[in-house]
Amino acid sequence: MFTFASSPALFTAWASGTATGLGLFAVVGAQSAFILRQGLMRAHLLSILAICALLDGICIFASVWGLQTAVNWFPWLTHAILWFGVAFLAWYAFQSARRAVRAQGGLTAAQHAVPSRSAALLAAAGFTLLNPHFWLDIMVIGSLAHGFNDARLAFAAGAVTASVLWLIVLGVGSRLFAPYFANPKAWRILDGVIAVIMAGLAMRLAWNGLA
């Protein structure tokens, strides 16, 4: 049981972790764009949200328990993750752009080429684990958590809470907007926006890697 003295400290750490997590995660990046598209396709959305939340939680607590130390021991991990991420994002940008220029590309993909559950989960894991920005966020959370000393796990729990909240927003939002995507033009616009986001992220990461 928590003592009266420790409970306020734990709550403060949890609230700080939640605020920090929302500030880091609540952006439309690679993972978010993928979840939105899968939600609009009604393709294994709950499974995808679950695996993303699980991976986020594991990585957040791993960071608090020593991920930063592992990166200090093996500096090449940062570069390997970065270039895998560049290749992955560039490939997805190309696929999205190709759908965007076809009259029925996105709508046909949604109606007739829904990926299997295993493929969807693998893609979700890729958009999470091959995203260098994700690892940077995770290491930031791990570093900040140690400033809360014995309450650092409460800070990590707050960051996990933020991750789950953002995933719920993405899932609910994609389902609310689903009726508007019976029109092929809406799919082409969405794929065009996703292509730009993915290509921009890939170029930014590549620039950082070469700098």
Automatic annotation (TrEMBL):
Regions that span the bilayer: 12-36, 43-67, 73-94, 119-141, 153-177, 189-207
Residues forming coiled coils: none
Keyword Magnesium listed: no
Name of the molecule in the record: Lysine transporter LysE
Top-rank taxon: Bacteria
Entry's Gene Ontology molecular function annotations: amino acid transmembrane transporter activity
Compartment(s): Cell membrane
Any GO CC annotation of this UniProt entry: plasma membrane
Key words, A-Z: Cell membrane, Membrane, Transmembrane, Transmembrane helix
Record carries keyword Cell membrane: yes
UniProt topology in membrane: Multi-pass membrane protein
Species, as recorded: Bordetella genomosp. 4
